[in-house]
Amino acid sequence: MRELAIASSALGADVVVGIWSPDDAVDGEAMPLLVAHDGPELDKRAGLTRFVSAQIEAGRLPRHRVALLAPAERDQWYSASALYARALATRVLPGITDAVAVRRPVGMGASLGGLAMLHAHRRFPDAFAGLFLQSGSFFVPRFDRHESGFVRYRRIVRFVRATLRERPRRTLPVTLTCGAREENVHNNRLMASALAAQGYRARFVEGPGVHDYTAWRDMLDPHLTALLQDVWAR
């Protein structure tokens, strides 16, 4: 694991990134990249790098790197922020590429982190080769009026409404997961259906868990593995 602090004048802050690589990797070895929002928490509470290490060891996934992105102002950055999407696509991903050799990045995130990954893809369609979105906060008033007190609720609603209606500039493989008992399950079903209708290779999986790291961890196998196999085999 190594840590980078990538400066963004637009955000007025550094984006701190932990880069995990296999033990014997060298910086110049080009590997696929998995980019995780809330990365330090996903690693600590859902065992993300332990999981991918085991998948590599078992031969189920190729050797790859994981970028663990830490949010400084999560409610602002991960709520369909144009400034954050630009920083991610034009500062953070190039900063990672300057540090280590990578290819075919796949973005992942849970809750607001999933929303932010989809938002970054829609604004910068060439940034990612695939998406893994868990319990995405795809707020729509029909299902999510109880979230209206959230500081960026209206901005999220505007983005989701546009995403449901507008044709994308580029489609890619995307897997969405959500607990069947979550409040977010209704907006996730809606988003998955819309993405599929727009030509995405979209797969939606409902699980038994709720909106927490345990549920997100339990959905990594086999669903994250299957997505990464699909994207990185191309």
Structure description:
The chain is 43% helix and 24% strand. By secondary structure, it is an alpha/beta fold. The protein has a single domain, classed as 3-Layer(aba) Sandwich (Rossmann fold). An eight-stranded mixed sheet has the order 1-2-4-3-5-6-7-8, with helices on both faces. Helix 5 (112-123) links the parallel strand 5 and strand 6 (130-134). The radius of gyration is 16 Å and the shape is globular. The mean pLDDT is 97.
Q: What is the distance, rounded to the nearest whole angstrom, between the alpha carbons of the first and last residues?
A: 27 Å
- Figure out the total of helices: 10
In total, how many beta strands? 8
Number of domains: 1
Shape: globular
Question: Roughly what is the average pLDDT, rounded to an integer?
Answer: 97
In CATH, the topology is named Rossmann fold
Low-confidence stretches: none
Gyration radius, rounded: 16 Å
Q: Strand percentage, roughly?
A: 15-25%
Would you list the SSEs in sequence order as H and E? EEEHHEHHEHEHHEHEHH
**What is the spatial order of strands in the main beta sheet?**
1-2-4-3-5-6-7-8
CATH architecture term: 3-Layer(aba) Sandwich
How many strands, what sense, and barrel or not for the largest sheet?
8 strands, mixed
What is the top-level CATH class?
Alpha Beta
Give the helix level as a range of percent: 40-55%
Pairing-aware structural class of the strands and helices? Answer: alpha/beta
CATH homologous group name: Alpha/Beta hydrolase fold, catalytic domain
